[in-house]
């Protein structure tokens, strides 16, 4: 049987698109065989391709598509601990365990991510300020290393390898399985409030008074300037208690699971995402929330995964794709860096349709994990080519001056020099990775761009 097929792969931003020889194993034995059969080529795992840029791409190398490694191996209903293969997705977990009264402890803004991808990017959710990242709820990872050994690592056993793998972008080995602690919930409903915020100061005031909510996030209108800069809609919620009833008329109040309600059937024309449509979208979205606070009981899907209702929504950005830029900067009472970023965006007119802002909690992990205490802002830009790249370079300087960093799981263009300043634990991470993979068998296009993956193998 032919093991490797040449495929063009891309991340969620559809930029860049790169060719690799791919294999789609269904069993762990086939993963071992793929490692043995890679010849002189480097290797990389690719989950559901929901990182935006080139983290899950390896031009000219060998890529293991992990989605079919999706067995659930063990579950303890008394504690919520579940052991799964790395290709299991958040969607699989929710569909399997919500009917049994459990929910994943941390979920990103889409349910279409694998557990391997969630660990390799140490993903965060709306509850970072309370529960930390996804990997704060992982107790064990089974890793296939470059030497072909299966190493079980956790915070006590091979802790350095464990922490280098957390947020390690697939460069320490291929995650075969993990153990994750699910949280008990009464049902699928979320008790939530939406608050219209008038500007950035108002956002921080609402955020400060929302500590009692386990989940918080805010959409921000990044076209608004002057006194309205930072206006948006703040959403906060928690899993609803037993007996809660969905509010009438709430989208999702009657649905059982997330299934896309519509699909973007083809690439939209590149001109669709222009200054005018962006302004109209941002204005209309802002106006949909009345003044003050509204409360409702919602299904989990529109609260956690609103974009999953539109399949292939990334095609709206046209065939040039989109770039996402997510930053975190340390706390600052004046919020100077966030203001400078928003000013730079409005000045250039290259606003973002989907901009999300959130205050992280205090928990941070070593290595290449992204979250650190402070404020995170995520922005989607249509790919305008050079002018956009110039703007993002400018934002990098603001982020660096503030002592922050950008999220590598969303990145497609950061320079090596900026990256090395943003991740101060890099040398230690490299040391651990080089001990376990001295020849750099595991590589990625992002790793090459940022100087993480050499040519050695
Ligand atoms: C709409 C949307 C919303 C999002 N919201 C959030 C959010 O709120 N918070 C957040 O943190 N992220 C968010 N993300 C990003 C997403 O959660 C991460 O990029 C995640 O890693 C994607 O998982 P994946 O299975 O698609 O992995 P891929 O994109 O396929 O791969 C990501 C990385 O994981 C590595 N990897 C995958 N599987 C394995 C494995 N088995 N072993 C070793 N390495 C592996 C890859 O090599 C790559 O480096 C969002 C993405 C989208 C599209």
What is the CATH level 1 assignment of the domain at 189-417? Alpha Beta
CA radius of gyration? 21 Å
From the N-terminal CA to the C-terminal CA, the straight-line distance is 26 Å
For the residues shown, what is the average pLDDT? 93
Could you give a short account of the major beta sheet?
8 strands, antiparallel
Strand portion: 15-25%
CATH architecture annotation name of the domain at 189-417: 2-Layer Sandwich
Can you count the beta strands?
A: 21
Helix content: 10-25%
CATH fold type of the domain at 189-417:
Alpha-Beta Plaits
Molecules bound to protein: flavin-adenine dinucleotide
Structural class: alpha+beta
| Strand order within the widest beta sheet | 16-12-14-13-19-20-18-21
Number of discrete helical segments: 13
Low-confidence stretches: 252-257
**Overall morphology:** globular
Quick take:
The chain has a domain at 189-417: Alpha-Beta Plaits, CATH 3.30.70.2520. It contains 13 helices and 21 strands. It has helices at residues 28-36, 90-97, 115-120, 128-131, 159-165, 200-208, 275-287, 300-304, 336-348, 386-401, 416-422, 426-436, 445-449, and strands spanning 5-10, 17-23, 43-46, 62-65, 72-75, 81-85, 102-103, 138-144, 150-153, 174-181, 183-184, 189-197, 215-220, 232-239, 262-263, 293-299, 310-311, 322-329, 355-360, 374-382, 405-406.
Structure description:
The chain is globular and about 60 Å long. With 457 residues, it is α+β, with helices and mostly antiparallel strands. Residues 252-257 have low confidence and may be disordered. The chain is 25% helix and 25% strand. The strands form five sheets. The chain has an eight-stranded antiparallel beta sheet with strand order 16-12-14-13-19-20-18-21. It starts with a strand and ends in an 8-residue tail after the last helix. Helix 9 (336-348) packs antiparallel against helix 10 (386-401). It has a domain at 189-417: 2-Layer Sandwich (Alpha-Beta Plaits). It contains 13 helices and 21 strands. The chain binds flavin-adenine dinucleotide. Flavin-adenine dinucleotide is lined by residues 11-12, 44-51, 55-56, 66, 86, 108-110, 113-114, 116-118, 120-121, 123-125, 169-170, 174-175, 307, 409, 444.
